[in-house]
Design goal:
It is built from 14 helices and 20 strands. The chain is of the alpha/beta class.
Length: about 450
Amino acid sequence: MGQAEFPSRLVVLSADGMRPDFYRHPKKFGLKVPNLCELVEGGASAEAVESVYPSTTYPAHVTLVTGVHPRRHGIYSHLASLDPTEKIRPWTWFARAINVPTLWDAVGASGRKTAAVAWPVSAGARITYNIPEIWDPAAPDPYQDFETPARHSTPRLFDEVIKRIQSSAARAAGNRRQPEIQKMSPDRLRAEAALHIWKRHHPDLLLVHFTLYDQLAHRHGPFAPKAVEAIEQMDKEIGRIRDAVNGDKATTLVVLSDHGFVSVDKDIAPLVPLMDEGLFGRSAHGEPELKRLGAIHSGGSFALYWLEEPTSENRRSLEKAVAQMVDSGAVREVLNRGRLKALGADPDAELMLDANPGCYFSDRHAGPIVQDGAKDRGTHGHLPSVAGMEAGFVATGPGIEPGRNLGRIGLTRVAPTLMNQMQIARGILASEVEPLALS
């Protein structure tokens, strides 16, 4: 790869859930994404990026900044709790749970400034200017909780950013009235925060996480009009950030994603047969109670954990419950410990279930195992080899060849590539994979 004359600054924009065919074949989906298309034309891009297992946001985003699979970095799920009976389950928000060095650690160790806006698993991270993705799990709408991220942000940064956003919005509206930031889309807020930090604090590394498409693709389906609109709005935010960083010819701009998306119309309820087999208890009101197994659902996959040493009878009960789910036609594959090890997945899981096309797992505990009319219309979390789970990667900047097609790549190759582009020795990372050749 060609090297810049001096170390490149780096801006990484994560488009949560963006499939690569959205920028490869936008007309197929009726998408208007001119900024993404210009970046593809002017830089290097992947046909597909194979995610991790489960193909969900938090494990994948940590792989993006470490270059290793979840089994190595320690973030196996979005959830920090194995108890599906909890009404309020905390997420893995805190960077202290990551077992290996990250991109921000490496950039910081080189004496350069780092920044992040709503990057997953970054609360408490050693980031110079940080507004982490975190919320009160009891909040009815995480996007309306400003107090929690403010409390965990770099001191005074959150208030500084919010005041700047309100002031800019008021000027744009031609009045002095403070606009209600709660009514702004999360992607617009994150873009505004990123632009302010870039212009005011001049970080060498800036990480930004856009989420509105993922939110709406779950609710309405990955190709629904509202989801398409969210991708198009995100493209506008990408364009604004690109225009802001283009003045610095030594800046590398990367737009990537963590996983893809598929449509679903059936809800699978593993808790139903697991409760029937006595592996979860049942309250007097029919509610599940934690007993012998812990569980985490990740949309297209479902992980099970022994909470105590199982007896032979316990194992037979689990086999019976799994057989019922397989017989229901909803399970694509049952992955044992050996298979999970090969995938670099959670070492503590006894097994994971991967859903068949059109199906996703939930914590529902009553009714049939498989139920039509799923609450969500889109999901991810399946095996990374499943069609539609592919993530995306587009990079422009110093030494990057315009129009370069990178083919199909692995998510673990992103972090070493970003390190290489910033001319930082990769030894600090735990990754042993080679960076991508961008020229």
